Amino acid sequence: MDWAASSPLVDEDHVQQLKEQGWFIIDDFLPEELAVSLRAEAKQAYEDGKFSQHRFQFGSGTFEKPSIFEADLHDETLQEPLASFAELLFEESLGQRLNHWWPELALEEGFRAKTLKVQRNGGQGGCFPCHYDNSGPPSKRSITCLVYLNPDWTDGDGGELVLHPFLEPDIIIAPLMRRAVFFRSDLILHSVRPSSAERFCFTLWLDGPTNSREDVNLTAKLLRSELETVDFLKRSPVQRSVSRAVNSELYEESLLACMSGMPGCDEMLQGHRQHVTQQLAHPQLGPFVEFLRSFTCSETVRLCEPLTADVFRRKQDWARRRVDFAWTLGSNNNHPVRSCRVVWKFWIDDD
Ligand SMILES: [Fe+2]
Asked: For the Fe2OG dioxygenase domain, which residue ranges apply (predicted)?
């Protein structure tokens, strides 16, 4: 498999988007033939029983994620049945390309600095609640690259990835065949909507020097209700320390969508609410969280059909200007008022 053929598609403009907003998309990331054979390989491996039920840790317990099955390519027994995917673990060109355009990323080389998982969503409501791929130490994940392998996906099948950039409009991304989504693992909160159709994808995580002290610690100096702090948090992984409280409804809704009625759901809901209540009760943190909440917006950008980069950029810039405009209108002595929460939607795939 010629993985190296896809890496040159990552250009300076994409990396600029990664720096400015924390994510970018490339449609047609894989050659058609390669994508078709990868899907066939993944499907065959699943039917041969090579995938495991997705499990995750919460508190002291381990829980199963309904309808989600995956194969971790660090498991050597999977490197033969999923040989084409395994090659990607040993392919350096993608990380080198990103490092070339953004040397400060300093992505590490070698297969130990990567994680590759192939995933099957069984389509019976399988989804993921809001999370960061790198939620803090000891994770070293720096960049997430998700590639979708669903030639027949159609509106209504669900399973869309939703990016929730901090205090920015949500981005709803359809899991289209050959579409790649890159984002900063420590900066982009995201979730997956319930899927009603079988869905395949694979994810490559590239490690780098993440979680420095400045990325992790919310210092007292930052607890100022000022617009500069908002701008700083949008671009800093330190947002993770207040994300759950700021977006508490979003977390709760996505948790219920994924886990309602399943073992562990009540504990998770309780843990979430307890965390939020504690932060809100804190004398300095509470008012700061309320301040940040006044910036949350209900705008949505929806990416369903494949897009040209130009159209995508134009629409996205327009969305951001609309939000900035709303904030400007609603500002009063640097304190935005809640009335600036305009509710509107536009469909980026309309033209
Ligand atoms: Fe994720």
From this structure: 112-208
- Domain limits, the chain: 3-213+299-347, 218-293
CB 133 within 8 A of CB 204: no
What are the b/e assignments for 283-318, b being 16+ CB within 10 Å?
eebeebbebbbbbbbebbbbbbeebeeeebeebbee
Cα separation, 326 vs 207, whole angstroms: 37
Residues paired with residue 118 on neighbouring β-strands, in sequence order: 71, 202
Ligand 1 centre and the CA of 77: distance in Å?
24
Q: Residue 190 C-alpha to ligand 1 middle, in angstroms?
A: 6
For residue 333, how far is its CA from the centre of ligand 1 (angstroms)? 38
pLDDT at position 151: 94
pLDDT at 312: 60
128: part of which helix (H) or strand (E)? strand 126-131
Cα of 132 from ligand 1 centre, angstroms: 6
DSSP H helices in the chain = 12-21, 32-47, 83-89, 93-101, 213-216, 227-235, 240-246, 248-259, 265-281, 285-293, 309-330
Q: Is 194 helix (H, G, I), strand (E, B) or coil?
A: strand
CA–CA dist 227, 126 (Å, integer): 38
pLDDT < 50 regions, the chain: 325-351
| CB count in 10 Å sphere of residue 264 | 17
Fold of 3-213+299-347: Jelly Rolls (2.60.120)
pTM recorded for the entire structure: 0.86
Q: Give whole-number Cα distances, 236 to 18, 107, 207, 292, in Å.
A: 13, 18, 17, 14
